[in-house]
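Q: What does the assembled structure look like for these inputs?
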Amino acid sequence: MSKEVLSKEKRTLLFGNEAVVRACLESGVGFSASYPGTPASEIGTVLAEISKETGLYFEWSTNEKVALEAAAGAAFSGVKSITAMKHYGLNVVSDSLLPLTYLECPLVVVVADDPGCFSSIETEQDTRWYSKMGYIPMLEPSSPEETMDVTKKAFEIAWKYKIPVIIRLTTRVCYTRSIINLSKIPKINSIGRFEKPINYEGSCSHTVLGHEKLLNKIELLKKLSEKSELNFTESGTGNIGIITSGVSYRYVKEVFDDLKIKLPLLKIGMSYPLPDEKIKNFCKKLKKVLVIEEVDPIIENEVKCLTNNLEVHGKDFLSSVGEYNTEIVLHGISKILNKKFPKDIENIGKQYNNTEIEPRIPFLCAGCPHRATFYAIRKIIPDAPKLGDIGCYLLGSWKPEKIEDIIVSMGAGISLAHGVSKSTNKKTVAFIGDSTFFHAGVPALLNLVYNKSDILLVILDNRWTAMTGHQPTLTTGRNATEEAKIIDIAEIVKACQVDNYASANVYNMNELLETVKDLYSKKGVSVLIAKGECKLAYLRRLAKEKKNYFRFEVYQQNPDLKELDNFKCPAIFKENGKYSIDANLCWGCTVCKQLAPSSIKIKTQ
Amino acid sequence: MKSDIIITGYGGQGVLTIAEVIAKAALSQGYNISQTELHGLAQRGGSLQCHIRISDKKINSELILVGSADLIIALDPLEALRACYWANPNTTILINYKTSKPYLVEELSPESLITKIKKFSKKIEIVKADDIVEKLTGNIMDANTYILGYALKKNILILNKDKIWKSITDKIRPEFIESNKKVFNEALK
Ligand SMILES: Cc1ncc(C[n+]2csc(CCOP(=O)(O)OP(=O)(O)O)c2C)c(N)n1
Ligand code: SF4
Ligand code: SF4
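A:
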């Protein structure tokens, strides 16, 4: 990935996420920190790849709040710094981000929203609300090209006005690749001098004064927003206008071309603070306006407040739910123009909707360590409430695993299970991945011990942050850029003064079953550290080392094969009562052979 | 020149790699390009669609409008049917005929899927890349290279074959170049 980001050409193909990194380099950023979260994950992945070569410091921090605080420390030390996260990360960091605006911290915060929830299972939230609550300026690019310019602009604003600035990306901007013009990368400055914010004192009255100062600053930023080229108009004919932001802008342009029309258009690229006067001026000559923005009606509500005698449409024509695309925008624009939706397109859509197409849902890889753990827990503890968490193992709440009852947010499973246990007098089960445990699990584990819970906590240690693209975690033996200590989860659990804990190798099914049985039989807090490296990460490493691995085959149809129905490996098929293994799909985890020893053996070739 | 292409398949099949190869070849031919894809959950075996728009004019939106793809390259018949959302009677649909059984998906024969696909467009090209490549090199990982070569030969992927080959070699590890070359040349025959 990094090759393009460091390109010395005049132009190259970059994803939105890569454009952020290139813009950091061109802006002389010296410090960056992140915690993975799709759709923003690759910003960190690329920063990790280029860090050594460019001198731009990067770390994968243990969670977003830690990353933000570290980046703020760098900014207070005069080093340009940035942090990037997915939208849920902003929920985690808000406790620190909001005071940093009072403290005049010049920081750039990239937040990626996921309209349509392509890689999000918690909420379809709109980050723009945070700007209003926290008085945080926000820039919103609509393409990778704009992301490049907007990121540079964000640093200018952050440093000129001494304030954190949010860049709001969305999935489509992050994961669209287009041709970007490049400039020279200056020498990176990663060492500065710490300076305490002027007249700082941590007092209540000081905070009230800080609030006032901040409001004054937002007034100045409003003036900037009025003048900013990020909020621009495009002329058009008629008295019906469009106000739009983010990727929707591009769909609007496509629809204009398709329908061969050109309506007056206002594109909002700085969505906080909004350019009130520009909006009023734009609306002055219009009779109707359609606001086209993904997710919540934030600009729409402002436009309604700023204007009177104007017919303002938005979410009455276009949904607050899901990702937009050209046809959705075409619907909205046809509606406000009182035009019929193009017939041929409508017919294709109808025919498609009438065709039955089976869904293909994601599942755990063949040989995944989580599958083995789920199998053992299901076997020994069939009916206790089981609370899940976020990671590849969230697929445990899907077909065919269906083992996790609820998943809320990172780290939530442990305390949910604690509450359920206290309220049902039943020993409950909670699952948490290694990366999620370090992110938000440790305080929850301490709470279990302190408040005498009765629960089996299963820590799924696969040595990677797998779901978001295999970033290293504290058990990998590497940090973002170099070798690092392997943090031993068992030592942490011990230090939390858990009475009953044990590690088990998930690929040794007998050991795993015995350990689960033993731990679940004990009253109080039990912790199982289920150890098995992410198979995908492991096999990729083998491939790089040009090593091979054993695959398995069914050589006899004996009754022990029946147990495989409970294991559900995607490489094993059953047809007319006969079992077989597709060698192309087998990842050699050995579990099937342990479950059906008289029928399965290593495949001979 | 304008070509709106959907590459589709399921996570793990190499949809994103094919898209990257095409986009980079188009870049080296001086076209404007927009390519969009998804990461995260979709990569764990779920269905995956990637939009590539190539044009000598400015490209507005990265997503292709319903019913307006010029070409759909599907690595699997079920995903080909799913991508018919972007098909019209003039869309060429190149389908990799996969017979291996998918996981968690009810048995649907490729034939019955293809019958359904024909209702959207009759311009269908079927290629049994997995079988051919298995015989040729024994490594079905090379199947996508065959599909690209085939699309070039049939003139449905309107890009320069040398640029595509260069783009493939930039992407794969050196030890696989030899077998991919064999597969690519066979497809172009
Ligand atoms: C606050 C927050 N940050 C980031 C994410 C994105 N995210 C989803 S899963 C995951 C990590 C999971 O890693 P781990 O717990 O080790 O499980 P694995 O995927 O390795 O099984 C992350 C960071 C999120 N959902 N919420
Ligand atoms: S990526 Fe790793 S942890 Fe995730 S499902 Fe695959 S094997 Fe399991
Ligand atoms: S077939 Fe057996 S050895 Fe291969 S991945 Fe599945 S369970 Fe593991």
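DSSP finds seven helices and six strands in chain B.
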